[in-house]
Specification:
By secondary structure, the protein is of the alpha/beta class. It is 44% helix and 14% strand. It starts with a strand and ends with a helix.
Length: 206
């Protein structure tokens, strides 16, 4: 129960993938003749999620959100080559592995995440990878954290969800675990970072 564990978000955290995501949304909107404003879409998905965006657009235009998401998913999968690692991602994953930190992924991304992580040579770092297609309630529901804490007997006080959005901090807070995030937060369990390379410094005095 004493070992540290990291649960990683992907987009904007380990993966520099927002340009590929935005490009996939633009193509999808184009297929359905939906006006596309890149900056407004970027702002919306950072604040909420791609799923929320598609559901809102579908409701406004009397479309099927599931069909929109299917088209977007196919478009995004074709853009895997555009997805690159965030600076120092590989080094921090390797550092955590050397420290004996157990690592997991929980992302709203679909099962395409497995392909991307495999192609980037990162899959070996993770004990388990959970995606938006794994059947769990979406963030900020604590369902995934409850599952991982129970299955792997993790210590909540030493388990960290690493992300880049307010939604990720809320997930950690709701789950009773710690948070490492690129954003500042009033949640006392949040550790703000400027870059992934800051993460090892959090644990220097522990």
């Amino acid at each position: 129960m004493q070992k540290t564990a990291f649960i990683w978000d992907l987009d904007g955290t380990l993966l520099d993938s927002y340009e590929a995501i935005l490009s996939g949304i633009e193509e999808t909107f184009g297929q359905f003749a939906i006006p596309y404003d890149k900056e407004k879409v970027r702002e919306f998905i950072l604040k909420f999620s791609v799923q929320d965006l598609l559901e809102q657009v579908a409701e406004e235009r009397d479309l099927d959100a599931a069909v929109l998401n299917q088209v977007r998913g196919q478009s995004l999968a074709e853009k895997n080559a555009q997805v690159v690692l965030m600076p120092d991602a590989r080094e921090v994953l390797a550092w955590a592995a050397e420290q004996g930190i157990q690592q997991f992924v929980y992302t709203h991304k679909g099962d395409n995440a497995f392909t991307i992580l495999r192609d980037l040579g990162l899959a070996e770092y993770f004990t388990e990878i959970l995606t938006g297609q794994s059947g769990f309630a979406r963030k900020p529901s604590p369902e995934v954290a409850t599952y991982l804490l129970d299955k792997y007997q993790l210590n909540p006080e030493k388990t960290y969800y690493i992300g880049d959005r307010t939604l990720d901090v809320e997930f950690a807070q709701n789950s009773g675990i710690q948070s490492i995030n690129f954003l500042e937060s009033s949640f006392e369990g949040n550790h703000m970072i400027q870059a992934l390379a800051d993460i090892p410094h959090i644990f220097e005095s522990k």
